[in-house]
């Protein structure tokens, strides 16, 4: 009826006009920017031509047809700009996310490599170098026997290094750590006074038990090797304390010659790797208090932030 009787459209905008913006919006979403821009201009222009032709009603007011056409073009361009900006923002977010994931993956790999390096350095220092130094300095039968036991322990630890480590969720009672350290004390030529308190009901992750045990043994080895003075005059103590249901503090103390921690060379692995980094990597902390002529106190705490002081 609209085509046959054009009088029915007098004063009304043809319904086809309202589909222009729908078509241009759909093109912006469906196709790239350049074709969408061309489509956004072409469709309203085609509508204007049809609107001015006899088959389109031969608009009595050409200005009205031109304005309708321009309005459709402007609205289509606005939609085009908004969607294009949203696309660019989404692409930027995707690129940033991808870059962040790549950086995280690289950092995780570097951290894993660093953790493995620290473990290897600590194992070599604690087991191999210490054994070789003790064997080289062994002059008496007792010292040779100690070096032999240390060599056997070094071989055992090297074998254990090739075995898969226990899961992070595995836990062990603190009494296991206490027994392990008591056993280690019997292998030293110098005596240690051992005190164990508040271990009942305390459980720690296996990784924390291993770190505390290895760091404490290394602290005792350092005391035996470097505290100087006649053995009978140097007092050495080992204290193991449970804190709460899942914390532990170990103190290795002697009244030997002491040293200045800030002056220890970075190349010396006994403090930096075998004690400090080992505890940090396991989620714990190590504090070394010493001064020349005032002895040494090594405090190991797990987890990090646990107050290592006496209550």
UniProtKB/TrEMBL annotation:
Q: Does the keyword Nucleotide-binding apply?
A: no
Isomerase among the record's keywords? no
- One Gene Ontology molecular-function label: kinase activity
| GO terms for biological process, alphabetical | phosphorelay signal transduction system
Residues passing through the membrane, by range: 15-48, 69-86
* Keywords from the named record: Kinase, Membrane, Transferase, Transmembrane, Transmembrane helix, Two-component regulatory system
Task: Tell me where on the tree of life, at the top rank, the source sits.
Answer: Bacteria
* Short name of any one Pfam family annotated for the protein: HATPase_c
Q: Ranges for the Histidine kinase/HSP90-like ATPase domain?
A: 211-304
Query: This protein is called what?
Result: Signal transduction histidine kinase
Source species, please? Agromyces flavus
């Amino acid at each position: 009826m609209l085509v046959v009787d054009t009088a029915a459209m007098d004063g009304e905008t043809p319904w086809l006009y309202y589909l222009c913006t729908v078509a241009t919006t759909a093109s912006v979403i469906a196709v790239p920017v350049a074709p969408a821009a061309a489509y956004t201009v072409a469709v309203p222009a085609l509508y204007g031509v049809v609107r001015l032709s006899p088959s389109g009603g031969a608009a009595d007011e050409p200005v009205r047809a031109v304005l309708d056409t321009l309005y459709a073009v402007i609205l289509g361009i606005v939609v085009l700009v908004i969607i294009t900006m949203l696309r660019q923002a989404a692409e930027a977010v995707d690129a940033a996310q991808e870059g962040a994931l790549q950086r995280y993956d690289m950092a995780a790999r570097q951290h894993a490599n660093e953790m493995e390096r620290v473990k290897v350095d600590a194992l070599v220092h604690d087991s191999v170098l210490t054994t070789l130094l003790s064997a080289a300095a062994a002059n008496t039968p007792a010292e040779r026997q100690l070096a032999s036991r240390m060599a056997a322990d070094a071989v055992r630890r090297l074998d254990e290094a090739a075995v898969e480590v226990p899961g992070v969720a595995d836990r062990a009672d603190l009494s296991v750590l206490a027994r392990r350290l008591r056993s280690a004390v019997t292998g030293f030529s110098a005596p240690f006074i051992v005190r164990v308190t508040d271990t009942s009901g305390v459980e720690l992750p296996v990784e924390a038990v291993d770190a505390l045990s290895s760091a404490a043994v290394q602290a005792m080895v350092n005391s035996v090797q470097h505290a100087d003075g006649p053995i009978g005059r140097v007092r050495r103590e080992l204290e193991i304390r449970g804190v709460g249901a899942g914390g532990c503090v170990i103190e290795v103390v002697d009244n030997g010659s002491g040293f200045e921690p800030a002056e220890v060379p970075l190349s010396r692995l006994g403090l930096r790797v075998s004690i400090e980094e080992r505890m940090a990597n396991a989620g714990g902390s190590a504090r070394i208090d010493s001064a020349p002529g005032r002895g040494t106190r090594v405090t190991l705490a797990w987890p990090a932030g646990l107050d290592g002081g006496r209550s």
